[in-house]
Amino acid sequence: MQRRNTYNLAERIIDNRDLAALSSWFKKSPRLTQGELTKKLEQEWARWIGTKYAVFCNSGSSANLLAAYALLTSGAMRNKKVIVPSVGWATTIAPFIQFGFEPIMCGADAGTFALDAGHLEKLLKEHDAATVVLVQVLGVPANMDTLLRLKKTYNFLLVEDACAALGAEYKNKKVGAFGDLSAFSFYFGHQLSTIEGGMVNTNSKELYEKLLMLRSHGWGKDLEKQSRSRLMKTHAIDEWHEPFTFFVPGFNVRSTDLNAFLGLRQMKKADKVSAIRQKNHKVYAENMKNVEFQKWDAKAAPCSISFGALASSQEHRRRIVKALDANGIETRLFSAGNLGLHPFWYNLYGKFNHSVSDKVHSCGFFLPNNESLSKKDILFICGVVNSVKP
User: Fold this and answer.
1) CA–CA separation, 25 vs 314, rounded Å?
2) Any long-range contacts for 19-27 (C-beta under 8 Å, 24+ apart)?
3) Residue 1: pLDDT over 80
């Protein structure tokens, strides 16, 4: 089968038409810092995901930071114990460490590589954790029926890290609409991009208002007038001091209207991009041999940033990577592998081992999934992997 020169893990989703539109917009001397375009993007994103509210910030990592601190300061948690995933990204769980939570690591599910439901339930029984962090790994949805049943039984707050899952669905509901709070990333290589950027979604007005204040120094300027007036009255603040009164200890993790302009352009292609990546992912799954990969049930529609696979051994992975490199196919290790085997975790809590998590760490690798790939391209990539016997 004829091959092209390179198959990149990521291609730019911000195209020349987006850049031309951005250039024309610049010529109008618009406001570049956070303003009306940010609000419009938040409204459109909330509508697309299926939540009441969304808050735009400067990265997916900051989205997780805001989610963690919003919960901490909400008064909604019965304790500071939080169950975190072993397969994900460092800044999925780092804020919970930084803010003094008591993190408890959970192993990975053998199918989706998200939270192992059996291990999760065991930890919930043992620790009565008030919060659970779920990563929708690479855009392959976890079994949400099972996780929501556990949520109802054990009454925990759910933070849904969907940073790599933009456009994925479970039972025709967008991933990111299940948690009490959810986080998204618009970094280069993800399904949609604003250069840098992130979003926090929620259905709770209380958490939404907390997020708005935390995002911008802790002040109330971004709140609706009625909510702001209520805070002013509660704290006996006069009008002169209103614009620069800080109600909570906040951050500055705002994005800009420049990024929001690009985000609004991205929203126009969101459905098309999701459909392409969903289709590509299925082609991989139907044609991949000699390796394991994430599984999903009929209720789910994966929309991945990359197709994740597991070789049978480290040696098998080494030979697969060599074959991929020889054919111009970009690859890398599977996310961060097992986070419990990284110094930021084990220096504080000791090493965490779990059979599935450890295999992701030692045998996992990525394959490209982006809009530039045709079915022929994916079949070629599958052929290269399949040619390397365990």
Assistant:
1) 50
2) 21/261, 21/265, 22/258, 22/261, 22/262, 25/261
3) no
Separation CA 33–CA 15 (nearest Å): 22
Q: pLDDT (tens digit, 9 = 90+) per residue, 176-227? A: 999 999 999 999 989 999 999 999 999 999 999 999 999 999 999 999 999 9
> How many other CB atoms sit within 10 Å of the CB of residue 351?
12
Cα distances (Å, whole numbers) of residue 369 to 51, 121, 156, 362: 27, 33, 34, 22
**What pLDDT is attached to residue 261?**
98
Q: How does pLDDT run across 145-174, given as a tens digit for each residue?
A: 999 999 999 999 999 999 999 999 999 999
Q: What is the residue extent of each domain of the chain?
A: 16-267, 270-386
Same fold, 16-267 and 270-386: no
What pLDDT digit, counting tens, does each position of 117-143 carry? Answer: 999 999 999 999 999 999 999 999 999
Domain 270-386 has CATH 3.90.1150.10: yes
Model confidence over 216-245: pLDDT tens digits? 999 999 999 999 999 999 999 998 998 899
Q: In what order do the strands lie in the sheet with 157-161?
A: 53-57, 198-202, 181-185, 157-161, 131-135, 81-85, 102-106
CATH number for the domain formed by residue range(s) 16-267:
3.40.640.10
Q: Which residues contact 241 (CB under 8 A, 6 or more apart)?
A: none
Bridge partners of 105?
84
